[in-house]
Amino acid sequence: MQAQVEALLELVGRDAGALRRRALRFVISDPRISVAVSGMSRISEVEENATAIEAAPLSRRERERIDEALATVAGSQSKWH
């Protein structure tokens, strides 16, 4: 399991802020999702979420790679295929 988690971290990054932004972009890049609710308690979190939302959506390939890595860690199948 450790190897799968490491592979996922290599894809999404190890910086906590980058990880949160990538996670939000992953969610809002899914065409099946129309609303994403993200908890925020500090102005810096609002700004970080705004930066993530303003960034270009993840490409289909980026979403597939992350989903495949998540599926490997969770022991399930990818949802993008």
Q: Which properties best describe this structure?
A:
mainly alpha; 81 residues; 0% strand
Summarize the structure in short:
Helices cover 63% and strands 0% of the residues. The chain has 81 residues and is mostly helical. Helix 1 (2-12) packs antiparallel against helix 4 (60-74) and helix 2 (16-28) crosses helix 3 (43-54).
Tell me about this structure.
The chain has 81 residues and is an all-alpha fold. The protein has one domain. Helices cover 63% and strands 0% of the residues. Helix 1 runs antiparallel to helix 4 and helix 2 crosses helix 3. The longest helix has 15 residues. It is globular. The protein starts with a helix and ends in a 7-residue tail after the last helix.
- Mean pLDDT rating: 80
Q: What low-confidence regions span 5 or more consecutive residues with pLDDT below 50?
A: none
What letter string, H or E per element, gives the SSE order? HHHH
According to DSSP, the number of beta strands is: 0
Largest sheet: none
Q: In DSSP terms, counting alpha (H) and pi (I) runs of 4 or more, how many helices?
A: 4
Distance between the termini: 23 Å
Rg, nearest Å: 13 Å
Shape: globular
Structural class per helix/strand content?
A: mainly alpha
Task: Work out the count of structural domains.
Answer: 1
Describe the secondary structure blueprint for this structure.
Elements: H1 2-12, H2 16-28, H3 43-54, H4 60-74
Helix pairs in contact: 1-4, 2-3
